[in-house]
Amino acid sequence: MKYELATCTWGDEELAAIRDVVESGNFTMGVKVAEFERRFADYLGARHCVMVNSGSSANLLMTAALFFRKERRLERGDEVLVPAVSWATTYTPLAQYGLRLRFVDIDLNTLNFDLDALERALSPRTRAVLAVNLLGNSNDYGRISQMLAGRGIDLLEDNCESLGGEWERRKLGTIGVMGTFSCYFSHHISTMEGGVVATDDDELYHILLSLRSHGWTRHLPDDNLVCAKGSDPFEESFRFVLPGYNVRPVEMSGAVGIRQLEKLPRFVETRRRNADRFLARFGGDQRFIVQRELGRSSWFGFSLVLRDESADRGKIVAKLRDAGIETRPVVAGNFARKEVVKWFDCEVPAELPNADIVDARGFFVGNNPEDLSPQIDYLKEVLDGVV
Questions:
Q1: pTM, 2 dp
Q2: Which domain holds residue 296?
Q3: Quick one: 216 and 152 in the same domain?
Q4: CATH of the domain at 77
Q5: How far apart are the C-alpha atoms of 181 and 356, rounded to whole Å?
Q6: If you average pLDDT over every residue of the chain, what do you get?
């Protein structure tokens, strides 16, 4: 490929970190994971971070935790508002916990919530809003916060594609009661598989610690907000208090994550420089709608939505592939139209015209933490010959 969707960001530092873990003989979650969690929280300016084995698992634990706090617990049948364009595991944990999903249209320019549609979709049954910061780009949290003020509605963030993005100098993923992150191969940092949940809430943090490891008490501090711990370590070693999972990361993931976090500021700045180049080439191109930045995006990728409804996206994508340019749909397109939703308790309270446009006419190309000026110029050259 001449323009790849993602490239490996590992170097000698990550390989050395893995060797250190192998030589230590401790492969399960341990001191390196704990250090990574501390450093990740420091980077975000968050009180707590919990590492898990994937961003998908992070969304699962974030959803589950809200069912086990002492006050204002979510219950099956409660309503959660979600954007119509995102990835599958934004939605599936909500459905698996029996929550009712209401799909809300997106803004065609930001690719995040259409704020007017979101406001209209709020109802007396709404208990949570799950905002997805798509492709590195922030939602308008000023207006969302105004909408939710005083209504007892939890704001959650799926920030799996947007590590390093900001809204009014706050890191994305720290604005809601909890935020999730992914450390998959193509994301802003890579432990190959891995994810994180961030929160400032002590009780939710303790719940997350228990849920991550079988629902037991072993990793809870003595003074915690889940249960009173006994004094006998033998009895506590296999004491289960919540219906949890085993979604723990391995120690190598934590070790690699530490090295990746050291590189993250440089990664994000390089992605932003690439975005400047992309916008210089495509920002005024009337054939395409390109994503409008809110706050400071960390630019996971570059989206292109065809304005001409008669344009043949399939032909264009095929030409790009033949030219060695890798593309994908804009995340999963309009998820409300996927076959899987027949298994969900969900509704579409209003039409989703913008999500349908993205579904039918959108695609994106990659952004990597290296100078992509030649690739972006080549993309423009190829598209000029096709569209």
A1: 0.97
A2: 265-384
A3: yes
A4: 3.40.640.10
A5: 26
A6: 97
User: E-assigned strands of the chain?
Assistant: 48-52, 79-83, 100-104, 126-132, 154-158, 166-167, 170-171, 178-182, 195-199, 288-289, 301-306, 346-347, 362-366
| Domain finish residue from 228, 257, 286 | 257
The string of pLDDT tens digits covering residues 134-148 is 999 999 999 999 999
pLDDT of residue 153: 98
257, 282, 315 — which closes off a domain? 257
* Number of Cβ within a 10 Å radius of residue 380: 16
Instruction: With CA atoms as reference, report the closest residue to 134 among 161, 105, 164.
Output: 161
> Residue 177: which of 119, 128, 112, 221 has the closest Cα?
128
Give catalytic residues, as residue numbers.
187
Q: How many structural domains is the chain composed of?
A: 2
Q: Give residue-wise pLDDT tens across range 80-123.
A: 999 999 999 999 999 999 999 999 999 999 999 999 999 999 99
Assigned domain for 214 exists = yes
Query: Does 312 lie in the same domain as 220?
Result: no
Residue 273 shares a structural domain with residue 336: yes
| Residue 274 confidence (pLDDT) | 98
b/e per residue 90-105 (b: at least 16 CB within 10 A): bbbbbbebebbbbbbb
Beta bridge partners of 306: 288
Sheet holding 48-52, edge to edge: 48-52, 195-199, 178-182, 154-158, 126-132, 79-83, 100-104, 346-347
Contact 295, 165 (CB under 8 A): yes
Cα 29 to Cα 56: distance, rounded to the nearest angstrom? 18
- Sign of the Cα torsion 213, 218, 223, 228 reads positive
The owner of tokens 């974030």 is 62
Q: Tell me which residues of the chain have a pLDDT lower than 50.
A: none
